[in-house]
């Protein structure tokens, strides 16, 4: 007991001396128990100096015949490794001996200590593992440790080589048949966590886990379900066998198990089982706690995105649970899911909006009401029948609290602005709001009324009030806020055009629609409504906004595709990357430039583009960047015209021309005179893949049947010698830039043949479907059969030309 | 990234209202007493309604895996990290549970435990040392604890701390004189 006390107290160094000598005596006493505990205590309270003195005893104890003593010494060693690694490393010989000991626990501890000592030496660890896998391990705990080390070794060796054979895989599989459940579980988990594991290797592990699913002990069930859940994220097909067992687990007593079972089923379910699952889940939802419910809701959302046809059942389910009791986080999760579904599945918009309308009639959280009202305001006018939503929104104006009323007024006004036929009725409704109690509501009503009634008449330097009020903000909110703060402090009149459009394709932050933005005093510039964020904002939207704000590009039409940024410089003074924007008849190159030299300020930056190859391009517009200070990125643009509907390839040589001015780092002053300079950039290619937009198709077979064979073209090509099939497949997918469907981009290792399905859209919104069949022969020659179907013969031909040219 | 050695984060023994009887923490994830109490309160609240009397139950809370068992008016909990092997935790729990039953001669209830608190703490100490599992066999644990308890001259649990240090000094003096 004293030992316990001393450990807890961990006295300071003066008092330690008293105790230490007593303890050292104890270490040599006859009672083994005292020896063991004395060692443990000593190791806890000593520091490095004293450790040297007692080291001799500890070394003896490590190989002591008595199990307890040896264990104590080993465990103390593990702890001491943190603080005094060198001393402990000297004991490695004794520890090695201890590993061979006959006692189970000593083996376990010795193995742990040895591994810790040798952790950084990969070779030593793998030697250790090799010797032990052949030898006999007695304790299940030691076996578990060994499994973990083995998987570590596999992970480290696999990162170097590409062999299909795994060195210790057989050992792991053998462990699956061990007597002790602990080892089986550990081995199964290790197998599932091996990276790039194939389904063949997974099968024995999954079989074992399936057996656990029906065990009587909750611990086993939980462990099995959790592991299967992790596997389902990467290999859903492998887990489908266990679906039946998992369905019975939904009604399990333990709520964690039940939730895990449901989420796994949702990940691995296919279309037919969705209906059945939904029925079971409805009963289940009332039982579980809020945090589990949120997990289930998110799983349902991903399921719906995977099977868009099933949106009706899932949407009904979501709206049902929305009506029931629940906390704020839970309801917020449901609302977010519905919003995402509406956005991604156009068919679901109508029913989704009606569900949301019914919800706001009875919602107790004003945050959610305002969010939904704002969303309705944006999306409602675009539906075929907007007037039915007006009733819901108007009810909110009358019935709810101030924040919700304000938001409802905004939503109504948007309807009025965007739908001409409803405008007079909206005006009537808005006039009633002028008598509201709350000043925010009155302000907004006044603003919208004047904008709607007179907005179309105010033609002030191509500024239209209604467009401004109801359109979206062109400038990032952060910049606007900064400018407004500066304005409040100064006397200068506020001009929205002076706010820097520091466009780095910012996704807009999510803001509550109810957050009041007080209009700036003494000016006529009211601040427009905030934007609702889309949690999956596509950067094409952001690029589109940026490009459409530049007047020269507004005539180009709708942006088809923007490529990802391509670096044109290495790690040098000026960093430039380029984004290629494809329009139906033009190509715009956006050069994002950053100046990383603090002593320089660049002005009048423009990019000189020379066409090396590509006769069909002709330069139309070049926009330069007026100023590029240190570390703030800017954009310069060059636009080319090209024949419409044709995929033109080209190569461009780029030079950056600018005037460089010295900046005094300390004072920030800029010199008046500058020097002209130019900087060579790398060449840029416009590839065929730039013209294709990736678009996933859920059911390839249906889509293939729908496209007529009239514009089909089939041909065979030889791709030469490749390392393996996977390399060939990936190369072809990259050339096309189309979206692989139904997981066909994954090629099983050592496969001799593979079929890959690609889908996408060509410029001009022409759908394209490609079916590729690959075969590799023993001499590693790859042959490919390419069949294309599209809505235009030109596109089908184009696909073949790309391949024959590549 | 899994660590190599299975680590236990804490071992808790709570009563039927969720108040502490005997607890021991082996890691720094709950630095203050307030956070420790908050953790105990939360897992008690979440496991209160389940029935873990016949079989050990398991749950995942706040990113930790907790294995627990109830007997009479006591709740036993063993906590590990979320990538821990659950069966290892269950074995530890079982060992702890059985050892306590052996030591208290099968009268496992709150009163007996409070009377023999020293044995309980010794027990926990013998099972886990600084987070590393020392022993899982209930017989061995009980034997070690019993031997220690019987061999002490005075029941040390009734002494104050300075008296305990004085006893240690006495031992030293005695051995020098021998």
TrEMBL record, chain A:
SUPFAM superfamilies: ARM repeat (SSF48371), Clathrin adaptor appendage domain (SSF49348), Subdomain of clathrin and coatomer appendage domain (SSF55711). The keyword Transmembrane does not apply. InterPro entries: ARM-like (IPR011989), ARM-type_fold (IPR016024), Clathrin/coatomer_adapt-like_N (IPR002553), Clathrin_app_Ig-like_sf (IPR013041), Coatomer/calthrin_app_sub_C (IPR009028), Coatomer_g_Cpla (IPR032154), Coatomer_gsu (IPR017106), Coatomer_gsu_app_Ig-like_dom (IPR013040). The keyword Cytoplasm applies. Residues 689-803 form the Coatomer subunit gamma C-terminal domain. Keywords: Cytoplasm, Cytoplasmic vesicle, ER-Golgi transport, Golgi apparatus, Membrane, Protein transport, Repeat, Transport. It holds the Pfam family COP-gamma_platf. It is a peripheral membrane protein. GO terms for molecular function: structural molecule activity. One of its GO terms (cellular component) is Golgi membrane. GO terms for biological process: endoplasmic reticulum to Golgi vesicle-mediated transport; intra-Golgi vesicle-mediated transport; intracellular protein transport; protein secretion. Residues 542-686 form the Coatomer gamma subunit appendage Ig-like subdomain domain. Residues 1-455 form the Clathrin/coatomer adaptor adaptin-like N-terminal domain. It is found in: Cytoplasm; Golgi apparatus membrane; Cytoplasmic vesicle, COPI-coated vesicle membrane. Belongs to the COPG family. Oligomeric complex that consists of at least the alpha, beta, beta', gamma, delta, epsilon and zeta subunits. The coatomer is a cytosolic protein complex that binds to dilysine motifs and reversibly associates with Golgi non-clathrin-coated vesicles, which further mediate biosynthetic protein transport from the ER, via the Golgi up to the trans Golgi network. Coatomer complex is required for budding from Golgi membranes, and is essential for the retrograde Golgi-to-ER transport of dilysine-tagged proteins. This is Coatomer subunit gamma. The lineage of its organism: Eukaryota, Viridiplantae, Streptophyta, Embryophyta, Tracheophyta.
TrEMBL record, chain B:
It is found in: Cytoplasm; Golgi apparatus membrane; Cytoplasmic vesicle, COPI-coated vesicle membrane. CDD domains: Zeta-COP. Gene3D superfamilies: 3.30.450.60. It is a peripheral membrane protein. InterPro entries: AP_mu_sigma_su (IPR022775), Coatomer_zeta (IPR039652), Longin-like_dom_sf (IPR011012). Keywords: Cytoplasm, Cytoplasmic vesicle, ER-Golgi transport, Golgi apparatus, Membrane, Protein transport, Transport. GO terms for biological process: intra-Golgi vesicle-mediated transport; intracellular protein transport; retrograde vesicle-mediated transport, Golgi to endoplasmic reticulum. It holds the Pfam family Clat_adaptor_s. Residues 8-150 form the AP complex mu/sigma subunit domain. Its main location: cytoplasm. GO terms for cellular component: COPI vesicle coat; Golgi membrane. PANTHER family: COATOMER SUBUNIT ZETA, ZETA-COAT PROTEIN. The coatomer is a cytosolic protein complex that binds to dilysine motifs and reversibly associates with Golgi non-clathrin-coated vesicles, which further mediate biosynthetic protein transport from the ER, via the Golgi up to the trans Golgi network. Coatomer complex is required for budding from Golgi membranes, and is essential for the retrograde Golgi-to-ER transport of dilysine-tagged proteins. The zeta subunit may be involved in regulating the coat assembly and, hence, the rate of biosynthetic protein transport due to its association-dissociation properties with the coatomer complex. Belongs to the adaptor complexes small subunit family. Oligomeric complex that consists of at least the alpha, beta, beta', gamma, delta, epsilon and zeta subunits. This is Coatomer subunit zeta. It comes from Ceratopteris richardii.
């Amino acid at each position: 007991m004293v030992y316990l006390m001393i450990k807890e107290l961990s006295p300071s160094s003066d008092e330690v001396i008293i105790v230490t000598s007593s303890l050292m005596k104890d270490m040599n006493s006859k009672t083994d128990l005292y020896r063991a505990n004395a060692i443990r205590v000593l190791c806890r309270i000593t520091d490095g100096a004293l450790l040297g003195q007692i080291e001799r005893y500890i070394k003896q104890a490590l190989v002591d015949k008595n199990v307890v003593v040896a264990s104590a010494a080993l465990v103390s060693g593990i702890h001491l490794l943190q603080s005094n690694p060198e001393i402990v490393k000297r004991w490695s010989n004794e520890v090695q001996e201890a590993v061979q000991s006959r006692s189970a626990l000593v083996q376990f501890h010795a193995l742990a200590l040895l591994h810790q000592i040798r952790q950084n030496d990969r070779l030593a660890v793998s030697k250790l593992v090799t010797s032990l896998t052949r030898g006999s391990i007695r304790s299940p705990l030691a076996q578990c440790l060994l499994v973990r080390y083995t998987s570590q070794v596999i992970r480290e060796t696999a990162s170097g080589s590409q062999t299909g054979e795994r060195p210790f895989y057989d050992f792991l599989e053998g462990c699956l048949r061990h007597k002790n459940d602990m080892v089986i579980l550990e081995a199964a988990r290790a197998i599932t966590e091996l990276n790039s594991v194939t389904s063949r290797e997974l099968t024995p592990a999954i079989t074992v886990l399936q057996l656990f699913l029906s065990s009587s002990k909750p611990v086993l069930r939980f462990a099995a379900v959790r592991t299967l859940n992790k596997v389902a994220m990467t290999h859903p097909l492998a887990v489908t066998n266990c679906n039946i067992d998992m369905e019975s687990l939904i009604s399990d007593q333990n709520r964690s198990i039940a939730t895990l079972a449901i989420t796994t089923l949702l990940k691995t379910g296919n279309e037919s089982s969705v209906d059945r699952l939904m029925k079971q889940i409805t009963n289940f939802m009332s039982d579980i706690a809020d945090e589990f419910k949120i997990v289930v809701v998110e799983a349902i959302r991903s399921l719906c995105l995977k099977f868009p046809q099933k949106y009706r059942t899932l949407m009904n389910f979501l709206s049902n649970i929305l009506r029931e009791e629940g906390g704020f986080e839970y309801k917020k999760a449901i609302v977010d899911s519905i919003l995402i579904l509406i956005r991604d599945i156009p068919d679901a918009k109508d029913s989704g909006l009606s569900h949301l309308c019914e919800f706001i009639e009875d919602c107790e959280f004003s945050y959610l009401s305002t969010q939904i009202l704002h969303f309705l305001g944006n999306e409602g006018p675009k539906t075929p029948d907007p007037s039915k939503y007006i009733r819901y929104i108007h009810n909110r104006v009358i019935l709810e609290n101030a924040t919700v009323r304000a938001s409802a007024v905004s939503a109504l006004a948007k309807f009025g602005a965007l739908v001409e036929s409803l405008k007079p009725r909206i005006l009537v409704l808005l006039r009633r709001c002028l008598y509201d109690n709350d000043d925010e509501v009155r302000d907004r009503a006044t603003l919208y009324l004047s904008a709607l009634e007179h907005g179309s008449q105010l033609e002030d330097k191509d500024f239209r009030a209604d467009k401004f009020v109801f359109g979206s903000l062109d400038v990032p909110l952060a910049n606007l806020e900064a400018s407004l703060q500066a304005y409040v402090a100064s006397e200068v009149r506020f001009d929205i055009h002076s706010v820097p459009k520091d466009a780095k394709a910012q996704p807009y932050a999510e803001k509550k629609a109810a957050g009041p933005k007080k209009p700036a005093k003494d000016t006529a510039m009211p601040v427009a409504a905030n934007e609702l964020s889309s949690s999956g904002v596509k950067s094409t939207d952001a690029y589109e906004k940026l490009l459409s704000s530049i007047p020269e590009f507004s005539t180009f039409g709708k942006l088809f595709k923007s490529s990802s940024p391509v670096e044109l410089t290495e790690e040098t003074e000026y960093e430039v990357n380029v984004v290629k924007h494809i329009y139906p008849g033009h190509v715009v190159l956006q050069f994002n430039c950053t100046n990383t030299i603090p002593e320089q300020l660049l002005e009048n930056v423009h990019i000189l583009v020379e066409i090396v190859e590509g006769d069909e391009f002709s330069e139309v517009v070049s926009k330069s960047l007026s100023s590029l200070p240190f570390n703030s990125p800017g954009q310069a643009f060059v636009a080319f015209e090209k024949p419409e509907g044709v995929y033109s390839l080209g190569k461009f040589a780029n030079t950056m021309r600018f005037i460089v001015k010295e900046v005094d780092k300390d004072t920030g002053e800029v010199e008046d005179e500058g020097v002209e300079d130019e900087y060579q950039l790398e060449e840029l290619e416009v590839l065929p893949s730039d013209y294709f937009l990736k678009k996933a198709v859920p059911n390839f077979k249906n889509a293939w049947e729908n496209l007529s064979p009239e514009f089909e073209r089939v041909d065979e090509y030889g791709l030469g010698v490749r390392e393996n099939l996977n390399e060939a497949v990936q190369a072809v997918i990259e050339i096309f830039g189309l979206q692989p469907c139904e997981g066909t981009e994954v090629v099983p290792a050592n496969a001799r043949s593979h079929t890959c399905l690609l889908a996408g859209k060509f410029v001009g919104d022409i759908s394209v479907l490609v079916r590729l069949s690959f075969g590799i022969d023993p001499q590693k020659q790859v042959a490919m059969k390419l069949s294309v179907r599209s809505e235009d013969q030109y596109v089908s031909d184009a696909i073949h030309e790309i391949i024959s040219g590549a | 990234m899994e660590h190599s050695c299975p680590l236990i984060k804490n071992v808790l023994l709570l009563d039927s209202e969720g108040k502490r009887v005997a607890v021991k923490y082996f890691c720094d994830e709950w630095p203050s007493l307030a956070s420790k109490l908050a953790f105990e309160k939360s897992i008690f609240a979440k496991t209160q309604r389940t029935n873990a009397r016949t079989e050990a139950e398991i749950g995942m809370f706040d990113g930790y895996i907790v294995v627990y068992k109830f007997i009479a008016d006591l709740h036993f909990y063993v906590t590990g990290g979320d990538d821990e092997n659950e069966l290892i935790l269950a074995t530890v729990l079982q060992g702890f549970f059985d050892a306590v039953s052996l030591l208290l001669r099968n009268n496992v209830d709150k009163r007996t435990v409070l009377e023999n608190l020293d044995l309980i703490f010794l027990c926990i100490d013998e099972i886990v040392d600084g987070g590393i599992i020392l022993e899982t066999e209930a017989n061995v644990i009980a034997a070690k604890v019993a031997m220690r308890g019987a061999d002490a001259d005075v029941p040390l649990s009734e002494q104050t701390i300075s008296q305990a240090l004085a006893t240690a000094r006495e031992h030293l003096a005695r051995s020098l004189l021998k």
